[in-house]
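Morning!

This is the sequence you dropped in the shared folder:
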Amino acid sequence: MKMKFIVAGLLACIGIGAQAQNVKSEEPKGKAIVQMFGNFHTGFGEKNDDRGFDLERSYLGYEYKLGNGLSVKGVMDIGKSSDVSDYQRIAYIKNAMVSWKKGNLTLSGGLISTTQFNFQEKFWGYRYIMKSFQDQYKFGNSADLGISAAYKFADWISADAIIVNGEGYKKVQKSDGLNYGVGLTMTPVKGFHIRLYGGLNEGAEDGKEDIVNMAAFMGYKCDKFSIGAEYNLMQNASNKKDADLSGYSIYATMNLSKETALYARFDDLYSKDDWNKAKDEQAAILGAQFKLGKYVKVAPNVRMGMPKADGAKENYSAFVNCYFGL
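The structure's back. Tokens below.
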């Protein structure tokens, strides 16, 4: 009789253990990446005919943690292309990367996110409304094929280095040149951040100059508000000698509640000896953001563009940007 109870108890334990193991194996180790950026916009005055609904970009992907500090990430970027009609959408592979984190060291390889303006973009916090300064004015690429390393020396200081092709994630490698970058991030006191970056993108062909990028950022963020400022310099843009671009961006956010925030930003882009005067400009944006639950954000805003080209007039527009993301 006792033996029957013992056998029954063992079978029950095995059954419970098997169920627990099944439950554990079913626990997700990764997460889906789904993000969509859309808007309704209308211009005023001379830009009055520029209005309508727009789906600017969609990100679809998955990130999976393998354990022991290893993780893989794949993301598709579906958006506009300057090479085809604006009515079409092109799909690119934005990320196809492997990362390994051990202690204070992080290594990444593959089609990775670059470090040139990633910190500033996250601090700005409204990528779905407007790209950060360097991305907006094409100082560099947000992703590229290569390797990167980051090391946290202490709670207040870390450094990173990256080597990539230098042509971005939308193009194949056409030349033999590489893009090298190093960055330093400091947080001397809680909430106060300093970021310095320098990069060299090799020309690698006769008649093409090396592109030099330098950036400095300083910002403060707390629960109630944030304010940041960055200065950026790109020498020999498009590998052309003395085709230098520089500019600054100042942005701030005030959190009225967990669901509501106000934001503002001012950009100023200018070129050496006015070689890029036709595209140089000042731009300003002012708006609010409302979080509608966990996954949806709505952000009405007004924008002003002040081109520096001779005879160009100021332009005004209103946007309602929308974000959905998991």
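Headline: Residues 2-26 form the longest helix (25 residues).

More detail when I'm at my desk.
O.
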